[in-house]
Amino acid sequence: MSVSQQPSSAGTSTRKLCVVMAQLDFLVGDIQGNTQAVIEAAQKAHNEHGADILVFPELCLTGYPPEDLLLRPSLELRVSEALETLRGANLKPAIVIGAPVRQGGLLYNSAVVIEGGEISGRYFKKFPPNYQVFDEKRYFAEGRETLVMPIHGVQVGITVCEDLWSDGPVEDAAAAGAQLILNLNASPYDIDKQASRKALLERKSRENRVSIVYVNLVGGQDELIFDGGSMVFDHSGRLDVEAPQFVEGLFPVEFLCEHPCQPVSQPLPDEPSLEANVYNALVLGVRDYVNKNGFKSVVLGLSGGIDSAVTLAVAVDALGPERVRAVMMPFRYTSSMSLEDAEAEAVALGVQYDVFSIEPMYDAFMASLEKPFEGTTPDTTEENLQARLRGVLLMSLSNKFGSLVLTTGNKSEMAVGYSTLYGDMAGGFDVLKDVPKTLVFRLARYRNTLSSVIPERVITRPPSAELAPDQKDEDSLPGYDVLDQILNLYVERDFSADAIVAEGFDRTDVERVIRLVDINEYKRRQAPIGVRITERGFGKDRRYPITNGWRIGK
Question: Which residues form the CN hydrolase domain (predicted)?
């Protein structure tokens, strides 16, 4: 069933329309604060841009994803109060906002249109997604109706996020006479996502001969990053307007509306490199996680290795050097090179830097364990003790000074369990959790193009945990060039062992890596969350049982 209202007699003549894309960062659960942000944005859009229509992201009143907050009994009351506040705010533009709305006993992911103090339209999302990081069917019913309505004399169709990726909603709105389609989004970032969005929007606008305004959320929410990148495609499938990624703002677009509406083209931003794009995502993820959760500062262990070097740079770029503390915790196996490089990084980035040897604590622990360890030979137990002592030091600084501990493990290490529970895994947020080791090297080189903060030999030396004499990561693992390819096929693309071998990889390497991934699920469940940058990160994306009898093979 379609809901379509006929335009006024003036709707057939050329009409200018100013649509402002509100690419903003909302805080999940802060309905009152989000409502105030909508009001302030509407006032600014009117005063500075003469906005006719102001379009916000999906579920902006609650923030996205609200998860089980949607099950709270008071949610409906709070959202209703927010909508009443917006109705009474005397907003000049028509606003299109995202909110959960209950009707007929069912909850819908909705777009709400408010004009002149009245709710003039509601649209219920037709395709709540239930894959990867999404589980909207846990909360939302499926909408059934199409909404095309006149706003400032222009027939406007409205859809929400996943409706764009499915067949039906855009087509139905175009068939119902939409001159322009507004699409509200909370689309999470991954490395290839913006290119996929552009390809989809090009096809949908061209096939349906209608301009589409795509407005996306920006900001970090736990492990998810919303990158903005709001866009406008015209009816021929041409990209006419693109807002920058990872930046908040109000982005106006002028339309000349007959049928369909034609956007006035604007200069497009330069295409960022993959490294720049990922680095910006990490910076935004750290900034929002730290600030939204009320931490004053962060602290991390600085080892002289590449992972902690990149983590330190991201933290400083996210928060400023005055809010970052780096701690070197050397032991007898720590090389002079590591000590020198860690200090050089701290000085280059201007952070507080401390050196606390773990040698006395290690000796004390080993003295206490002398009797139960009698007759045994040193093994990974003693190596892991070093990592755990460092974790205790960092967590103590965290408790005393209210600093969030940033862990520094990368995706390659997290995948195969090359990490120590309650040691280098101790902390609150893992910046590189979804960044493969080979990409960490590329990020280090990219960051040095902005300013030289990571010594060259940190990038070129063989990676080592330095928990034993002359230790190198590749003594325990395949080379990272090979390891990361196998992990990509197994973790992100769900290839079986046989299928990976068929791609040309050594069966012994493949089966060894897969076994390490499978048996270390228990570690990942206890690891801090971290920024998601790939199509399938550890966390919301990949939910495997710890206890299982699945066998490697087909």
Answer: 17-257
**137 and 220 belong to one structural domain:** yes
In contact, 451 and 316? CB cutoff 8 Å: no
pLDDT for residue 7: 41
The parts of the chain modelled with pLDDT lower than 50 are 1-12
Interval 293-349: pLDDT, tens? 999 999 999 999 999 999 999 999 999 999 999 999 999 888 889 999 999 999 999
Residue 193 marked as a ligand binder: yes
| Cα 436 to Cα 246, 414, 427, distances in angstroms | 21, 9, 20
Catalytic residue among 18, 60, 161, 261: 161
Peptide bond into 7 cis (omega under 30): no
Active site (annotated) includes residue 261: no
Q: How far apart are CA 157 and CA 174, in angstroms?
A: 7
Would you say 90 is a known binding-site residue? no
Of 60, 125, 257, 383, which residue is the catalytic one? 125
Is position 44 annotated as part of the catalytic site? no
Is 68 annotated among the ligand-binding residues? no
Q: Of residues 58, 115, 345, 466, which has the active-site annotation? A: 58
The residue behind tokens 């990272």 is 480
Catalytic residue check, 161: yes
Closest C-alpha among 229, 234, 232 to residue 219: 229
What's the confidence (pLDDT) of residue 8?
40
**CATH number of the domain encompassing residue 460:** 3.40.50.620
Annotated binding residue 131: yes
Task: Note the pLDDT of residue 466.
Answer: 60
Tokens representing 430 are 């893992």
- CATH (domain of 230): 3.60.110.10
Owner of token pair 């990081």: 133
